[in-house]
User: Fold this.
Amino acid sequence: MSRVSLVTFILLATMLPGSLSEVSESEEVIVTVDSTNLRFSPSSVTIEEGDSVRFFWSGELLAHNAVAEDGLFDSGEASRNVDYTFTFEIGTNGTHQYVCEPHEEFGMIGEIIVEPRDEPTSPEPGEDPDEGESSAGEESWIPFFGLEILVLTLLAVLIFHLGRIRGVGQVSLSTKKSEEE
Assistant:
């Protein structure tokens, strides 16, 4: 059974990341606290809608937090150890100022500029290109059936393995009748 588990794990590890990478194109930007302990680093970031900002610091001398002035996000109470991620969904584009509440008067502020995500433009109805033609920037789409193949392969391996365990898959070329003759 351990061989089947190993084969299953290897198949999943090699096939799923490729198909999942097409699903998500969001990025994560990390904001920390600089060595002065009174500034965010970087203090200004530019991202697109759908991207995330991760506020991360550990073992800092002073306790910090990150709170948006417009109330969009709040990392919670000030702490010496923070690991807080906020994803800027579609519709949150614009400039968002944020502060460390205990150190705002010392200038511990930052800004996140969220730009609208560029969506691929689709042709207007009735403006379909002729068959066989494609524009210079257009990519051809080939369906990927990796997950279906993986499931069918795993099912075949499972059936084969269960058949071997139960003795169903053993076939003999000779029968009792031919052995007696």
In short: The domain at 27-115 is CATH 2.60.40.420 (Immunoglobulin-like). Residues 16-23, 132-139 have pLDDT under 50 and may be disordered.
